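anyone seen this seq b4? input:
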Amino acid sequence: MFRKRLVYLAQLSAVGLTGYYAGQFSEKFKNDDAQTVMIDGKRVQSMPGLPIFGTVSAATPFSDVGSTKDRVSQIMKYGFPSLDNIRSYDDFVLSYDRRNRVPNWVFEHITKLHVTKNDQVDRSKCEFKPDESIHPFFRSQNTDYKGSGFDRGHMAAAGNHRIAQKHVEQTFYLTNMAPQVGEGFNRHAWNRLEKHVRKLTKVYDDVYCCTGPLYLPRKEADGKSYVKYQVLGANTVAVPTHFYKVVVGQASDGSLDMEAYVMPNQRIPDETPVSSFMVAPEVIERAAGLLFFDKIHRSKLNRINGKKV
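predicted toks r here
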């Protein structure tokens, strides 16, 4: 009798264990399946810390044809300033600020070829347009800028991407724009800084440029400092108080020089030299909450803002 009970208990245990492991396998299969998504007929797993959607994506359909992957790697050769809502285009990469509806930063890699006049490229055919890869809640629209008194200011300059018409057209996505004072700034002082960066391609084989907005505090009459900025339109597009550019030039011998600029978003007298807006790069990093060119140790730079390191 006792032996029969032991056999019975052993059978129950076997059934229980079998059910447990079957359940575990089934649950794992379900979980694995839930964490994957089909892309072009292939099942891809969503890894922790790098969501397939929402954080990193291509603004245009991804293709293995050509050198799309290599181009992004080349542009971001010296590191990402941050990894928030990355959008990769054919010739530049940006991080989009969904709350303010402007970029956090925009990265470009330019050479002589990129800035040389190209008769096959016609800027007048380009139109400002919202980026459909951004969720509708977070998109800026042309109507936000209409009648505001502010220009749709390029962060990746159209003149830096003359290799192909498509490249220039992509710089007109509103994800690449931020509101800029037009007269005296976007069309003048800021334009002079953009031209200066293009001229650097005559000195360096490769020029890496990171551009973006800043929202800097200002001391008010009560003695306290406040960060205040205007917003535009129904989508409350933020008007930055300042803009920055951090540029690294790489010479043919591999030596690296850095320049860093901050300009106030206001009318600037024409006689003001671009060099007067140079600042230490760490000033921008602290203000923006970003790290620029973090794969380059500052001691490896030859010059910063023209001064020997």
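The CA atoms of residues 136 and 284 lie 30 Å apart. The domain at 56-308 is CATH 3.40.570.10 (Extracellular Endonuclease; Chain A). kinda curious what u guys think
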